[in-house]
Amino acid sequence: MAEVVVEQLVKRFGEVTAADHVTFTVRSGELLSLLGPSGCGKTTTLMCIAGLERPDEGRILAAGVVLTDAAQRVYLPPERRELGMVFQSYALWPHMTVANNVAYGLRTRRAPEAQIRERVDDVLRLVQLDGMGARYPYQMSGGQQQRVALARALVYQPRILLLDEPLSNLDAKLREQARVWLRELQRRLGITTVYVTHDQAEALSLSDRIAVMSRGRLVQLGTPREIYEQPADSFVADFIGQASFLPGHVAATGGGRVRVRLRSGQDLSLESSAPWEAGRPVLVAIRPERVLLADGRTDNVLSGAVRAHLYLGARHQYVIDIGDLELRIEIADELPEGQVRLYVPPQALTLLPHAG
Ligand code: ATP
To answer: If phi over 0 gives left and psi between -120 and 50 gives alpha, with beta otherwise, what is residue 8?
Structure first.
């Protein structure tokens, strides 16, 4: 089992606590993304797993082996951790052919030459660069170079792979293709992978599970669907996809349902088994793409005035004024100007606590 366990990891840089009691487990064969805005501590966490940073507190284990344990003063150097790594600045050797770039690490480990050649061929085939071993990096596209960097990590046949924004140098279209390709390869090899990204679309499409980080802390860990549909707080809801947050208070509860009175005076109901007391200030998070035209419905309907419209080709984006509140929606239909009635399905609502 090639699990990675991170327990109560703390890493400080002077006044900054870059990783603040971070705890999670990456299951064997799983792709887990560390996702969050710039500076939230993703790279620091990955560097601690890699052994390129030394934690102040906590323990990290990989495949049952203790890599680092601050309390016991255990610290395995990176070269003894048997992890594959690809970083943002993957820096291929420009004066070496692709094959030599990939073989470099094996040569420094003094593996037999015939074995090196065979492994390099295998791994170049794996990343779909067979026949390109004799080229130099400058003769390859950005996407191909990225795959060479991946081949260089995979040539040791690691059971665990650490990737830090490995697709960030690619343009949008190439990046999307590379995502699909990388995901297929990772599944096929069954290689436990920790993937750092600040790109929520990338995390949602690639991951088995996502760990969302903010200011050094892990704020939510779950499947992409859980994170998107049941965000733990307004930070997660806002960071993952878009959402409008409408303030109000709990007007009534009972029978597994909660009715919220929005500040604008309108009511929305949703199903919730959580114990929300009447009178409690809340935020109702609404995803723009979940809102529909009311079409004769009367429950969970908000009426408002169209303020702004953006044409997106297949869809339309609108900003609707609901009293003094603002609702952003994305919808296939073009709305009439002026007043509109919109239906917000109960299952499209997420209730979040609000300071009031
Ligand atoms: P990005 O996506 O921008 O790389 P990140 O989430 O990976 O961000 P980290 O690189 O882990 O964030 O940085 C977390 C915090 O620690 C930041 O405030 C950063 O400035 C700080 N930090 C990281 N490395 C160092 C260092 N070597 N010395 C001092 N501060 C550091």
So the answer is: left
Beta partners for residue 213, in sequence order:
218
- What's 230's DSSP letter? S
Per-residue confidence at 170, pLDDT binned at 50, 70, 90? confident
pLDDT confidence of 356, banded at 50, 70, 90?
A: low
Judged on CB neighbours under 10 Å (0-12, 13-18, 19+), 154 is buried
CA torsion 18-20-21-26 (nearest 10°) is -50
List the beta bridge partners of residue 330: 317
3-state helix, strand, coil in the chain (%, to 5): 25, 35, 35
Check if the beta carbon of residue 165 is closer than 8 Å to that of residue 90.
no
Residue to mutate (ligand 1; options 16, 167, 217; most atoms within 8 A of CB): 16
Q: H-helix or E-strand containing 349?
A: strand 349-353
Ligand 1 centre and the CA of 35: distance in Å?
14
152: which residues sit within 8 A by CB, 6+ positions away?
A: 86, 92, 101, 102, 104, 105
For the Cβ of 22 lying below 6 angstroms from any atom of ligand 1, the answer is: no
Does any ligand 1 atom lie closer than 6 A to the CB of residue 11?
A: no
End-to-end alpha-carbon separation of the chain, Å?
47
Cβ atoms 155, 123 nearer than 8 A: yes
Write the CB contacts of 73 (distance below 8 Å, at least 6 apart in sequence).
none
Across 201-266, the runs of DSSP E, i.e. the strands, are 209-214, 217-222, 244-254, 257-262
The pTM assigned to this predicted structure is 0.84
Ligand 1 atom closest to Cα of residue 11: 16
Identify residue 284 by its one-letter amino acid code.
V
Separation of CA 241 from chain center: 11
- DSSP-assigned states of every residue in 298-315: -TTEEEEEEEEEEE-SSS
